[in-house]
Amino acid sequence: MEINLKSLREQVYEYLKEQINKQNLKGGDYIDINALSNLLKISKTPLRDALLQLEMYGFVTIKPRKGILINKLSVDDVKYFYEIIGALECAIIQQLCLYIDSQLIEKLKVYNDVMQKALDESNFDLYYKNNLNFHNSYLNLSKNHYALKIIENLRQRLYDFPKKAHYLPEWEKRSTTEHDSFIELLEKDCFKAAVFMKDVHWSFSVQEKFIMEYYFRQ
Known about the structure:
Elements: H1 8-21, E1 30-31, H2 33-40, H3 44-56, E2 60-63, E3 67-70, H4 75-95, H5 102-120, H6 124-139, H7 145-159, H8 169-188, H9 190-201, H10 204-216
Helix pairs in contact: 1-3, 4-7, 4-9, 4-10, 5-6, 5-8, 8-9
């Protein structure tokens, strides 16, 4: 691996994500740390530190004398991730209510319009990119770097590890409709918009039908 400015954690994460998305690895597989060290040309001590960070966020589990276990997402994992992301987004939005202005509202509308057009064109990569842009438009106004890091890692766990080859047009369309409702609430009552994001958009019970089909259908 070429030396670059990415942290070791990012390098290891990107490698594992690439291998999983190429179906060379899957949840439940083991990786030998010696083989990974040789492949990535990273000594075992810093590699182990990077893997410990990935383990902390639930991507892998280090098993003594067995190797590195690529974790599978469980139903409980997704449920808890949704609860955490929803609670943090709600709190951040409420803290930012004084800073919500027409410029941000317009930006959200543009991103959501692009998402809707991407669905019409079956362009999920464009949809996904603008979905992240939509949420990051207000999240990145926050100075709570701890909360933002938690959200970032949980979203990676949900969306990228592994990245699904399929998507559910009905669910994605519903998400854009929820975004429209969120924007309308944001223009009228920021606190209600924040609660909507937690109790609807990031609610496991509200989204359960789609979650089960997207993550766990055989």
